[in-house]
Amino acid sequence: MTSYNVFYSIKDDVDTHYVTCLTQEFVQLLSEHDLVESVTCSKLTNKGNFPEMPDFHLAVNFRNQDHMNESFDTVRRTLMNEHPHAELMKSTKEFKVTFSESF
Q1: Suppose 11 and one of 18, 72, 83, 93 were both cysteines; which one would form an S-S bond, judging by CB atoms 3.0 to 4.6 Å apart?
Q2: What are phi and psi of 68, to 5 degrees?
Q3: Which helix (H) or strand (E) holds 40?
Q4: Residue 42 burial (CB < 10 Å; 0-12/13-18/19+)?
Q5: Record's superkingdom (predicted)?
Q6: In what order do the strands lie in the sheet with 92-101?
Q7: What count of other Cβ atoms lies within 10 Å of the Cβ of residue 5?
Q8: Does domain 2-45+53-101 have CATH number 2.10.70.10?
Q9: What is the mean pLDDT for each group of 10 consecutive residues in the chain (103 residues)?
C-alpha cells in the first residue's frame, strides 16, 4: 500500500468544523470515484516533542504506486480547483506532505 500523508493547520480566521466538513466531503468524493483505497483523518491531540507539527493529519492510502499516480492525475485534471478541494487549500496556513510505503 502506498500512502500520501498530509499534515496541515487551519488559518486562524477559518472555522475548524467547516474544514472538517470539507475534508469529509472531499474524502467521500475520492472514495466514490475509486481514487483511494482508504483515508484516515485526524486532529493531533498531543504533539509530544514535536510542537512545530501541524494540527491535522490526513492519510490517504492507495493500492499501489500506479493507483496513486492515476488518482493524482485525475485530481489535477478535474478536482484541483473545484469544490471542496479548492476551499480546503484556501483554508490552510501550513501544508506538509510525505509519502510512505507499507511493508
Answers
A1: 93
A2: -65, -45
A3: strand 38-43
A4: exposed
A5: Bacteria
A6: 38-43, 56-62, 2-10, 92-101
A7: 15
A8: no
A9: 97 96 96 96 96 96 98 95 95 95 93
